[in-house]
Amino acid sequence: MITINKNIILIVILCSFLCSLSCSSRITQTEVNNSVYLEDLYISNILSANTFELPLNMIIRDSKGDTITFKEIIKESEKIVLRISNSFCSSCVDEELMRIGEFVKDSSVIILATYQNPRIIKVIEKKKSITNPIYYIEQSKASAFLTQNDMYGSPYYFIVDKRGKCSCVFFPSLDYKTITERYISYSLQRVKQNQKRSIFLSDIFYIDSAAIGDTITIPFEYVNIYNNPLKITHVENSCNCTNAQFSNSEIVPLEKDKIIVQYVPDAIGERILQLRIWHNQSIMPETITLYSNIDK
After folding, report:
1. Cα(87)–Cα(65) distance, rounded to whole angstroms?
2. DSSP run (H or E) holding 17
3. 8 Å CB contact between 95 and 180
4. pLDDT at residue 71 above 80?
5. pLDDT, tens digit, for every residue of 233-277?
6. Average pLDDT for residues 157-185, to the nearest whole number?
7. What pTM does this model have?
8. Does the pLDDT value for residue 22 go beyond 60?
9. What's the distance, Cα to Cα, between the start and end of the chain in Å?
10. Does 32 score more than 60 pLDDT?
11. DSSP secondary-structure letter at 230?
């Protein structure tokens, strides 16, 4: 059975609609408004999609040739990723690299590239005036995790969050460049909005190896970033295997304190645990996350 990606269907519908407008001898304001509406509908649709995952421990290389794990790249915030490869449409890749080099100089947008020679990414950096981070991923790893989108032979964008979950896949078109510009603009707005200030100096902790029954103690340090006294009021544990201890005292602006989380693994395998922390300076909780790998 052949599965057709819903984004491709939407692209076809969008392109057909816009072509019908461009071929008309007289385009009314209503038709133009409908065109904008359809573009917005398309963008909002793909921004709600969630399609695949990239492993946090995946090792790739930066433009200097140094190795780095994927979790180091995304640990601070979401990223918008431009995926390119030597097997993709070359003119399409050139178009997107030109766009990134000239108009999207933002470290929230990164490039994930696959070429036969990894040194080519250094050439791309210089030739296309790329200042955004660019990383090299081997073909074997790309085949394992990116095949479902690489198979279309065209560069594409997606958003990856701090857990490695990838969503909002978008295939740009050479014929409709403004739609790509709007996709990037909307995506940057989303990423920047999600980069809200947190009271925690680090809200993620990785447990690479542990055994069932171990007691793991993790201190999460936080600081009062507000102008008024800060007080932790409530912590919601994600399961019975975690327990959080915190002070009921207020701390003054810029003062620091800690929440001590104790985790007792109760099952083998990889697990993501999140605790929600409420305080008196916000109606929304903060979140701290444990990534655990229990191997025995």
Report:
1. 21
2. helix 6-22
3. no
4. yes
5. 999 987 889 999 999 899 999 999 999 999 998 888 888 888 999
6. 87
7. 0.59
8. no
9. 40
10. no
11. B
Q: Which DSSP category does 193 fall into?
A: H
Contacts 24+ apart (CB under 8 A), 5-9: 5/148, 5/152, 6/49, 7/46, 7/49, 7/169, 7/170, 7/171, 8/152, 8/171
Mean pLDDT of the chain: 82
Q: What is the pLDDT of residue 232?
A: 95
Token output for 162 = 């701090």
Dig out the tokens for 35 from the structure: 């065109």
Q: What is the pLDDT of residue 239?
A: 84
Distance (Å, whole) CA 39 – CA 48: 15
Bridge partners, residue 110, by sequence: 81
Confidence of residue 46 (pLDDT cuts 50, 70, 90): low
61 C-beta neighbours (distance < 10 Å), count: 17
Q: Give residue for tokens 């790739």.
A: 60
Residue 74, classed as helix, strand or coil, is: helix
- In angstroms, rounded to a whole number, what is the distance separating the alpha carbons of residues 162 and 209? 20
Crossing angle for the helix pair 177-194 and 29-46, to the nearest 10 degrees: 50
Look up tokens 């979401």; give the residue.
Answer: 78
For residues 162 and 78, is the Cβ–Cβ distance under 8 A? yes
Measured N-to-C along each axis, helices 29-46 and 6-22 cross at an angle, to the nearest 10 degrees, of 170
DSSP labels for 117-174?
STTHHHHHHHHTT--S-EEE--HHHHHHHSHHHHTT-S-EEEEE-TTSEEEEEE---S
Comparing 251 with 46, the larger pLDDT belongs to: 251
